[in-house]
Structure formats: C-alpha cells, structure tokens
Amino acid sequence: MRRQGVVVPVRILAVSAVMLTVGLIPPAWSGEAVTLRFSNWHLVETVWGRSLREAIAIFESQNPGIRIAPEPISYAEKEPRYQAECAARRMPDVVKLHNFSLTMFFELGCAADLTPLVQKEGPNFLKTWYETPIKSLTYRGKLLAMPGDFMSMVLIYNRELFRAAGLDPGRPPKDWTEFLDYAKRLTRDTDGDGRIDQWGFSIPASKNPGLPLRIAPVVWSFGADFLTPDGRRSAMDTREFREAFTYIVELATVHKVVPPGVTTFGPGDVRTQMAHRRVAMKMGSGWSYPIINDINPALKAYDTLEAAPVPVGRKQITMAWLSGWIMSPHTRHPDAAWKFIKFLTSKETEKKFFFDNRVISSRKDVNTLPMVQTDKFSKMIVSQLQYARLEPLIPEWPEIFDAFATALQEAIIGAKSPDRALADAHARVNTILGAR
Amino acid sequence: MNTAGGRFSPASHLCGAARRIARIPRPRDRHLGYVFIAPTILLLVVVLAYPAYQSVHLSVSPRGGIGGPTLVHYVALAQSDLFRQVIWQTAVFVAASVAAHVVLGLAMALVLNRPLWGRTGFRILALLPWVVPDVVAGIIWKWILNPLYGVLNDALVRLGLAANPLEWLTNPSLVLPSVILANVWRGFPFVMIIFLAGLQSIATELYEAAAIDGAGSLQRFRHVTLPGLRRVFIVALALDTIWETRRFGLVQAMTGGGPGTLSEVLSTQVFKQYFQFFKFEFASAMAIAMTGLLLVVSIPYVRMIVREE
User: Which alpha helices (DSSP H) does A46-114 contain, by range?
Assistant: First the structure.
C-alpha cells in the first residue's frame, strides 16, 4: 500500500518528463518540416499584410520543407514583446525592426550574427545593397540584420486642396517660410460654418517611433542636431535648435495650421486626416500612398497626392527610414531562417514589395528598374536618398528622443514655454548620456 | 462484499469500509499530500516567487549587470523629480477613481437591488464596461474625446454647451480628469457587484424591524444598510485601490502618459523605462518601490479584514 502511494506519483512524473522531452525535440530531428515563426508589424496592415502572405506562400512552394508561421504584431508592441521573448529565448525566428530600435536589440544580443552566413554566399553578395544600410546594420564588426526598406522622408501633399486654396500644385513649398505661408492658406473653413475644418499640415506628435522620422528632417534642415558630433552631449541648447523647435511649436500654438489635439496623433491618425481631406500636407514616404488609398479609395490617392522634397532651411536634408530583417540568436533552424531572410531580401521579392506597397528597396538593382524610376512617388523618394541620414545609432536614442518629444508636447499644450521645455530636455539628455 | 448471514447488509458494509480506512497508515501517507500540492507550489514559485526575486535582484544590480549589489537605482529614484510627479499623479488617479467607483457603485447597487422591471437586463448593461478590456476601453474613450471626430465634443457643441470642441486629452488641466473619467466608467461595475452582493446578504427582517420602529428610508440606509455593507466596503476599497494603482492599458491607450508627462502613472513609467528605454535595473527599482507602496496601502485593509474575521 505504502509502496503504491509513492510509485503512482513517480510514474506520473516519469510520463510527464518523457512527454516534455518529446515536445522539446525539434521537428527537424524527427524528420518533419521545419516551422519558422515570423513576426512583422506589416502583417496587421491590409496592403502590406496581403503582400507578405503572398510572399510567404511563394517561399513555401519553393521550399516544401519549410513552413512559415506568421505572427502579426502591432507597430508599437513589437519592441517590448520581442525584447521579452528574447530574454526568454523565445523570440520568433525572423522579425523585422527599423532603425529606431535596432541598436538596442544589437546591444542586448537579440540578433544573430549573419556574417558567417553572408560570407558563405561569396565575396560579392553584399555589393548589391547600398553602403549606408549595410554599415548601419553592422555592429561591432558583425552584420546583425539584412537591410529591408530604405527610404527618404518627403513632403506628401494633396494637389486638389492646393488648387482649391489658389496654390500651384506643381510648385510645392521650397523653404520653411514658404511652407508656413502655404500651410496658412491651406487652413480653411471649407463648408462655411465658421469653423476651421481643413488644416495645412499634420504631424503625429504623440510619443511614437514614427515621430523622429517626421520631426528630425525639420530640425536638421534648420542646421541643428540633437547631439554633439561626438554623440556625448546634448546639442539642444544651440540657437539653430531653438529656432527649429520654436518653428515647429508655433505651427500649432501661434499659426494654428495643424489640427487640434496634435499631441495625441499617431501616424495612422494623420493618414486618416489626409485620406479624408482634413489636412493638405504631411511628412511621409513610400508607404504613404498605398495606405491612404486603402483608408479612402474615393480620394484616388495616386492622382490626388504628390511628393516633394522636404523644404530646405540652412541645408537640404531629410531622414532615412531603414528596416532590417533580424534572425533570432536562439533560433533552432538558422539555415532555414537564413534561407527565408535571403528570400525576403532577394531581388524578386523586393520587386514584389515595391509593386504591392511602393516601398523602396535597399538593393540598388531594384531601384534602377523602370517600374521604380517611372513611379512619381518612388522617383522622388529615391532622388532624395542622397540627402538622407539616419537617426543616431546609439542604444540611448529612444530615451533621448522621448526627452525631446516630452518637451515638444509640453510646449505645444502650453504647460511650459518653448525655452523652458527645451532647457529641461537638454538637461535630461545630458543626464542620460552621462550615465553611460 | 460484506454479508450478514449470507445477505448484504449496508451497515456492515459501511463498518467494513471504516475499518479499511482506519487501517491506512496515515502518518506515512501524509507525504503523499506534499506530492499532490507540489504542482501548485511549483507553479507559485515559477510565476510568483522567481520573478519577484529576479525583480529585486535586478533592482540592486548595477547597469549592465557587472559588479556587486548597489542601491544606486533607488537613490536615483529618490532624486528623480519625474518619479515624485508620477507618484503624485498616481495618487490622484487612484484616489479619484476609487472614490468615484465607490459612490457610483453604491448608488447603482442600491438602484439595482430594488424590484425594478427588467432588473436583470439593467444589471447586465451596468456590467458591460467592466467586461470591455482595458486597452479597448482606452481606445473607445480616446475616440469619444477626439477633438475632431469625438462624439462628446459634437454633443457639447450641438447643445450649445461649448463654443468650440474641447481638447480633452491635450489641455493640461483636462487630461488627467479625462483619463479618470474613462477609468470611472470602466471600473465602477466591479464595486457595484460587490455592493450588490453585500446588499442581498442583509436580512430583510432588519429593514422591517427598523420600519416598525419608525425609521425613515434615510435612517434605514444609515443604520441598517451602511453597517451591513461595512465588510464588503473594506474588501472593495482594498481590491480597487490595488487594481487602480496597477492600471496600465487604459492610460497607455488613451494618452501614453502624455502630453509631456501629465498623465504618466507608475505603471506606464515602469513600462517605458523597461521596454522602451531598456533600463531594466532602474525599471525594476521603480516596480519594487511601487510594490512597497501597494503593500503599505493594503496593510491597514488586510488588518481590518483579519480583525473582522
């Protein structure tokens, strides 16, 4: 009796242990097809999601031994989730991240070293890509991600609203003085009820990873920068930075050419406003037109919207968007994951992504194709790549930009004067960098 | 089979079973009890004790994890103006939310405890906000309060109560009250349900006796209802305070702690420090401080409950 009382739980534990061990055996060992977990924020978007699923189907048909399990994730959720999954060694096998947070993932060891895999492909393998993306994704001598989209930020505007405001749609604003003048003229009461219902410009000024892309070009073009050239101190106390900051704040507070509630807007809100003719100008890139078209097909976005260079201040400059495909450092199928990354970054797939989503590739051989060169948006975005620069590639960048965004919001809502808000941000950034 | 005189006898059968039970060597078999509760204990250790230990360990680790234990993150917290501001905002958020939950929850419970036509339907309706997930409630309220498309502004302007749409989530003096308003809507049904259960446990004879003694409805409420609800009131207050201090999804979805840091609460700050700035040690220190505060808040309630029992 006593013996039986001990034997039963021991048997249960033994059976559980065997079941657990069997469950942990990689499918490849048991001769089954390899399943790769693939996470990407585009999977939740209609246009991009469809394109990616089609690409996955093509890959699976070409590689019958590999199955891709898509894991959709929201744009804002991806960093926290991947970071937690990486800590638990459960990060999806392949994920996409963009420049904003790539360095943090490199620093945390959440990206597999692709250098040996690339070397196996031959010495000329990487020559197909632009140099800037490859350099940016190389951290401490190791290539930790393969480049995805590489685009410059441009000014997107509605030609019909320009015409209705008496502006020449073929002549977008060239500098920031002209931009303000245009924005004022485009801020109007269109239905005559005495209330403004159309605004010249909109920007996603909530704290979101899309804000630096839209704000940094303005700051840089005023000749300012967030950090000193050595990256060790804040440069937010310069005259140029104050000018840029005040200019942006006054668009909302003095000139009122942006819609009310701007500090709550995310990129999706601004696209919706443009899709419904509530705003005439916004910062955007290759993704703008297909998404806006999807929100409101009646706008006929391809005909109605135009792209122009970011207005010029002291210098002509814009910001580059760069995304990278990361392989989990804990993947159990590195060869299959590399095969999938190679497929995602191949000329054929990048051509498909351009055709479906109008995103510009970081491959030179795709951007010289006639389909890219004849598209009015893509042509403009590719032409501006020469003026584009990336965010500072330091792990502290998200917190540094948060300090700036906090100051921007405080100044816009009047909680602090622009000078006070900027001085506080400057001090906070120096504290952040001082803690290195 | 037990038989008496060759026939089955229930009494003798039971006696036989009792004898068999008595024969079980109990002291030894007590160990079997540990085996049975082992999975639960293991689960608690895995999901509670280990993460708690890790958080404490992380909070006293130097940045990057190299070096011995340090209190540097707690010192940084104590010196942080932002942390003090966040503590104050969290206190305002929790106090206002819990107070409104109690008042509104009690009022609704009193109404729904009366014999009304369609009472079950009203009870289900009143519960709906609590069923809505936190983040979804935040998104709903963000749209309701939207200055361009929001239904609340539209109603106010149409009714002539406001000349222009109000900037609920960007006006420094309106943002925190707006988030609290949304949180009151979302959270009052929980308190209401607790009070409703409490009201139904009060014996009707007490009301009848009070009525015979000439007590009016206000006196019955003061001398019968309120004392009868004392215990559930303590439970509701304790649980609601703890939950509202941890509230994250609603605030994050509505404002993300902004504009600036005006609606930042402890949970959103911990999230930012950990998942956005990747300052694991500092975020852990903040989380431990938050846990400490919650313990301080909950100790008096727990003591009262223990005393009550």
Answer: 46-62, 78-87, 99-107
CA distance A327 to A116: 13
Label residue A193 exposed, middle or buried (CB < 10 Å: 0-12, 13-18, 19+). Answer: exposed
Cα-trace Rg, chain B: 27
**Minimal Cα–Cα distance from B167 to chain A, Å?**
6
Q: What is the dihedral of CA B87, B90, B94, B100, to 10 degrees?
A: 130
**Contact with chain A for residue B277, Cβ under 8 A:** yes
Testing the interface with B: which of A264, A265, A431 to mutate, by most B Cβ within 10 A?
Answer: A264
> Cβ atoms within 10 A of the Cβ of A325, count?
23
CB A84 within 8 A of CB A50: no
Residues of chain B in contact with residue A5, where contact means CB-CB under 8 angstroms, are 28-29, 32
ipTM associated with this complex: 0.79
The shortest C-alpha distance from A156 to chain B (Å) reads 21
Task: State both tokens at B92.
Answer: 């305002």
| Residues A353 and A325: beta-carbon distance below 8 Å | no
Question: Which helix (H) or strand (E) segment is A280 a member of?
Answer: strand A279-284
For A261, the closest of B31, B148, B271 (CB atoms) is: B148
Size of interface A-B (CB pairs under 8 A): 95
- Answer yes or no: do A259 and B170 touch at CB < 8 A: no
The rounded distance, in Å, linking the Cα atoms of A123 and A120 is: 8
Return the residue in B278, B281, B284 with the most chain A beta carbons within 10 A, the one to mutate for interface testing.
Answer: B278
Per-residue pLDDT tens digits of chain A, which is 436 residues long: 444 554 555 555 555 555 444 444 444 444 568 999 999 999 998 888 999 999 999 999 999 999 999 999 988 788 888 988 998 899 999 999 988 788 889 988 999 999 999 999 999 999 999 998 999 999 999 999 999 999 999 999 999 999 999 999 999 999 999 999 999 999 999 999 888 999 999 999 999 888 999 999 999 999 999 999 999 999 999 999 999 999 999 999 999 999 999 999 999 999 999 999 999 999 999 889 989 999 999 999 999 999 999 999 999 999 999 999 999 999 999 999 999 999 999 999 999 999 998 899 999 999 999 999 999 999 999 999 999 999 888 889 989 999 999 999 999 999 999 999 999 999 999 999 986 6
B-contacting residues of A 322-361, CB under 8 Å?
A: none
Structure tokens at B280: 């694991």
A409 and B259 in contact by Cβ < 8 A?
A: yes
DSSP-H helix ranges across A257-333: 267-275, 288-295, 301-304
Distance of CA B66 to the CA centre of its chain: 38
CB atoms within 10 A of CB A190: 13
* E strand or H helix at A326: strand A318-327
Environment class of residue B120 by beta-carbon count within 10 Å: exposed (0-12), middle (13-18) or buried (19+)?
A: exposed
Scan for tokens 């891709």, then name that residue: A68
B205 touches chain A (CB under 8 A): no
Q: Using an 8 Å CB-CB cutoff, list chain B residues near A208.
A: 256
Describe the strand order of the beta sheet including A305-308 as a list of residue ranges. Answer: A199-202, A279-284, A154-158, A305-308
Q: How many angstroms separate the Cα of A434 from the Cα of each of A232, A235, A338, A431, B88?
A: 8, 14, 39, 5, 27
